Structures are given as structure tokens and as C-alpha cells.
Amino acid sequence: MLNKYPLWKYCLILVISVLGVVYALPNLYPPDPAVQITPAQSGDAVDQYTLSKALDVLDEAQIQYFGEELQEGKTALIRISDEEKQLQAKGLIQRELGDGFIVALNLAPTTPQWLVDMGAGPMTLGLDLSGGVHFLMEVDMQQFLTQRIDGYRDTLKRNFREERLRYKRAVLDEEKRIKYEFIDEETRDKAENFVRREYAEFLTDTRDEEGRHWLVLTMTPAKIKELEDYALKQNLTTIRNRVNELGVAEPMVQRQGRNRIVIELPGVQDTAAAKKILGKAANLEFRLEAKPGASRFSSEEFEFKNPERGRTSARLEKSVIVTGDNVSNAQPAFDENGQPQVNITLDSTGGALMGKVTKKAIKRRMGVLFIEHKTRTRYVERDGVEVPVEDKYTEKKIISLATIQSALGSSFRITGLQAAEASELALLLRAGALAAPMYFVEERTVGPSMGKENIDLGVTSVKLGLALVLIFMIAYYRVFGLIANVALAVNLTLLTAVMSALGATLTLPGIAGIVLTVGMAVDANVLIFARIKEELKSGMNVQQAIHSGYDKAFLTILDANITTLIVAIILFAVGTGPVKGFAVTLSIGIITSMFTAIMVTRALVNLIYGGRRLQKIAIGGGV
What we know:
The chain is α+β, with helices and mostly antiparallel strands. The protein has four domains: 7-25 and 451-609, Multidrug efflux transporter AcrB transmembrane domain (Multidrug efflux transporter AcrB transmembrane fold), CATH 1.20.1640; 32-108, 2-Layer Sandwich (Alpha-Beta Plaits), CATH 3.30.70.260; 142-224, Gyrase A, domain 2 (2-Layer Sandwich); 284-419, 2-Layer Sandwich (Gyrase A, domain 2). Helices cover 47% and strands 28% of the residues. The protein has 15 helices and 23 strands. It has helices at residues 7-24, 48-60, 86-97, 113-117, 127-130, 141-162, 185-198, 221-246, 271-278, 348-359, 419-431, 452-502, 508-537, 542-574, 578-609; strands spanning 32-39, 65-71, 75-80, 101-108, 124-125, 132-139, 167-172, 178-182, 202-209, 212-219, 252-256, 260-266, 281-288, 299-308, 311-317, 322-323, 327-334, 340-346, 365-382, 385-403, 411-414, 438-446, 505-506. β17 (327-334) and β18 form a beta hairpin. It starts with 6 loop residues before the first helix and ends in a 14-residue tail after the last helix.
């Protein structure tokens, strides 16, 4: 029988439509502005006492809040009644709790639990629609240059020994110049010739003071600029990798000036986690444990991050085997006893160095030194107002000290960590170590980049255009127009549901993609209805005309949508940022409009007209 679907097709359309409604529903529940408290140290937790201190501060400042809760015993979330007070609340709580906690802006979801249990969640809005969080980070170029020049000093000391150029001492002065004192003038001159021949990045100068023969090396301005550019580019790459590890949708990470990086996260994401990962200028150093009786010139003492069997510190050699820069991959795992560990894979250079050193150090212990560049906040009074001042410092602690049982290669493991620390360390190593220490200079919320008025006008134009399309379809195509409008509503619901389920970010170009999808969905229905009208005018009966109209219009609609889909895929492949958002929305819209324009409208037409003897139908144009 013509124009009759089997029962399974009706059930399939119904199931898909119901799922679409379920997964689109979370977008009707806007999130609440909130402040999140997270421990700065991995593995620590926020307790009720800490939460109470934070709430007392808000009470004193008369900032209204609600829904305060401890989440999984590790973090705390406080919902703020007034969005304008969110940033003020963050600052007050941060001062009260100190540097042991990260207090960050967040958006607390209001999606009902039954929807969350089904895996449903709202779409993420881009910076141009909802605003987001803005971080400004500064690279500590002075400390970076000091580290690099200090590395040159050690390398040159080794080279001088190999060339049998005896020197008395090597120092690094406040102007970042390397000064070597030699035993006589002839040796000093040979050393100068060697440096000029092998190290073009240094300017040389000789000085004789009170019988002392000095060789002074100053790094050239060109080399300094090259190192600074390298540090900033490497940090940019590392920050982008860390943002990708966080899974933030469509972020912006770009250079600003000589030594700063701007990071913008669309929507107010979990900024506590973002700050914890983005700002952690951490690295690893692998060193052998110092031999008993080793001098202070060749060894250093460090505390354990997690004390081992009551032992709080150990001495390590100053010479470094490899660093975190040589790590090509790192994954958290558990050992045979269920204890957390990090599986490390070194690059070829690191693997060769590790094998060379450990081959001669079997039965000795090797320490893994975790190095973090941190800031400590204090408050000073200026012009009668207390302002925060951040002091920078470096913390070095041993996270593992294990006996070398056999020569190590490119793959080995680090133990002695808590589960949260292992996951965080693996993430930092995978994303890459920062070439230079970085510190947060500014954190603030940013409003929608398009401006609220422009967004309101854009949304109003979309609503107006959609309303005019719906009215026109009903006025011109009558019952078939009403069917097309129902299918259009299903299409928009499915589009919203798919984007929400995929975690896609909706931007203003994405809204343009939705508008284009609406036009394409209606256009497909217009083609079908026009074909049905032509068949009716040629004398074909109603049932045959409906069947023929859908069949003959199908290929035309398929060709048009496939060509548009190819363009959307190309846009996604070569585009960036908002262009990708437009491409994603358009691609999903093409697929959903094909389903609704053909399957859903056909099902509705079959339910209304299928199997009936009809002389005419209300399809407009006098038919």
C-alpha cells in the first residue's frame, strides 16, 4: 500500500525524537555563578572547617550565597546569588585561605540529576556569546636566562678540562657574565681562542687584576633575543598542549609583547583545574644519590615530598642525568601492589644518557627531583589600601629515591606518589615542560566579545526570521506547511541535542550555521511539496503524487546536501576557531535536516493521508 511506513520506522523516529528532547533539555537550565575552592597540593582535600572560613568571609562582606557543598571530599563549591559579586567573593576567600588553596571562578550546573545520570549536559557557549575567563601569564625571562647561562658555565668547565686548560674558579656575576680565573695569562689566552672558535654566542674580554687572569664571557644581544623567543614559543606550545589536555573547547592562547601570554577560556570553565595545570612551571631532574662523605660543592640536600619511612631528606649529586625535557611520553598507572606510579618514556637522547650513567651506577640510588616555580602572596598597604604582592620562589623536593638494579633505558617508572599526584605529573610531562618559569599576572572574567546588545539583536533576528518562515509555510502550504514546521522543530531539537552530547561549543558563527540549517531544511520540504504539486497537476491521483513527489525529490535533496557537507568538512579541516564552530554546526545540521525533511515529514504525511481515498489535499497554490 502506498504511503504507509512499517511500524518499526515509526518507532525509530519516535525514539530518536524523544532522545533528542532529553539531550536538548539541559540547555533550559542555565548554570549559577559560583566560586570553587581547590587545594593547591594534589592529593589534599577541602574540609568543612575550610568551607566554614570561606562562608564567614562572605557573611562579613554581606555577599549572598547558597548551595554550598563539599564535592567528593576534595573541593568546595559556593554558588553566588549575584553574578556581579562573583569576582569580589573570589578575592575575599583567596585572601582568607592563603596560597594553600586555589580559589577560582566557575559556573555551577543546575541540570537535574536524572538528566546528568543519562549523560546529558548543556552546550558550551563561546567567548563571543557568554564571555569567559582571561588569564595573563608572564614568563620570568631573567630566571630563564640565568639558568641557561649557568648551564653554559658548566658545559665550558667540562670543555676546558677536556682541552686541559686549567682554571681556578668560575663564577656568574649579577650582570649574567661568566668569569673564569686561570692560573696564567697563556692558558687564559688559549681558553679565549677556544671560546671564540666554538661559542660564537659569547663576547670575550680579558682582565688582569692583582695578579689574577680573568676571562669574562658576555652573551650577545642576538643570542639573548633568540633564547627569549625560544622560551616564549616553547611555553606557548606547552600551554596549548596543557589546554588540550584539559579539554577546553575553542580556547585562545597567544603571545602578548615580549614576555607575556594571554589565555582565554570560553565560558567560565573549571578555572581551578585550569590554573593548577596552566600555571604549574614544573619539571623533573634525575640525579644520583650523593656518596657518603661527598662535599657540599658536588652535592645538595633536598626534602622528600612524601617522607619515606620517617626519612625527611637526602643528598643528591649536583650533576643532572636527564630532565623532564627529555620525556616523550608519561602515563599514570599502578604497580603490582596497587600503588600509583608514572610510566616514563624518554627520547633517544635522554635514553642514551640514562643508560650511560646507570650502567656504571648499579646498586646506587637515583633520585627524582620535582621542581616547581611558585608564588607566595602577601598584602601591603599603599595609599591606605591593602594590595596583594606576589613573591616568586622555587621549590625542589624529592618524589622518588630508588635503587638501580640494572642499567635503565628509555622506559622506566617513577613510584612514591599519591594517585592524584601521579595523574597530574603524567599530564604535565605529556604536555611538555615549560622552558621558562611563568606566573599569573592577571585573572579576570571577560564579557561577551560581541557585546550583549549585538547578541540580543542577533538572537532577535533569528527568532523573527524563524517566525516568518513558520508563518509563510503554514499560509502557503497549509497542512503540509504545518507538517514542515513540526519537522523543523524536531530538527532544531535534534541539532541542539547532538551538539550538547558532543560537547561542541556554540559561537555566533555557529548560530549562523543553525540559521542556514533552518533554511536548508525548509528548502528540502519546498522541493518535495513543489514536486507533489507538479504530479497532481499532471493528473496523477493524490496517493501516487505524494509517493512520487518524495521519491523524485530525494536525489535532488541528497545531491545538494552532500555537496554542502563536503564544503563544511573542508571548512572544519582548514579553519580555526569560530570557522570550525560554524562548520561543526552546519555539518550536524545537514544530517539532522536530511532526517527530518525526508523521514519525519514523510511519517507525518503518511499518518495523516496514507491509505485514504482522497480527491485533493491542502498543499497550497490552488491544489
